[in-house]
Fold this sequence. Notes:
The protein is mostly helical. The chain has helices at 8-23, 35-44, 52-55, 59-78, 89-109, 122-149; strands at 27-31, 49-51, 118-120.
Amino acid sequence: MDANRVSQGQRIAGIAGVLLFVDLWMSWYSVNIPGNLGKLADLSGVDTTASGWQAFSWTDILVAITAIVAIAGAVMAANAMTNPLPISWSQLTAVLGGIMTLLVFYRILNQPGPNKLVNVEWGAYAGLVLLAVLTYGGWRALSEEETATAAPAAPPPPPPAPATPA
């Protein structure tokens, strides 16, 4: 494993992927129970929060897949493994990250349940930021790959030889 083979973009995406995977266990939503019932829930120790895993039916799985793709791309680059996919890991990371950033942004604006009862917690905002960073890392790794594979410019032709008098 050679960490020098991992580009800056792949490192950004990989680290964001690890943090995003951990963030799925943090509190994304909470329920605001009004009145005495809320006080009773607080006293009895009822958990009124939901993690990313608990709050979603399929979005959480797609977020986890996006995180795993970002991590796998960095690990495969570090181990100099060949890519079995028809597209690069950076392309896949950038596209999945962009789609999931938009989807999580939508889920923050349109949280599950009525707005009076459901609060968006810090885990959802952290997830949104981490997805945006992951997308940036994938995009940057993609541009770094294009720069590295571009053919070097040909050297300029030598200047013409001065004419010699006869």
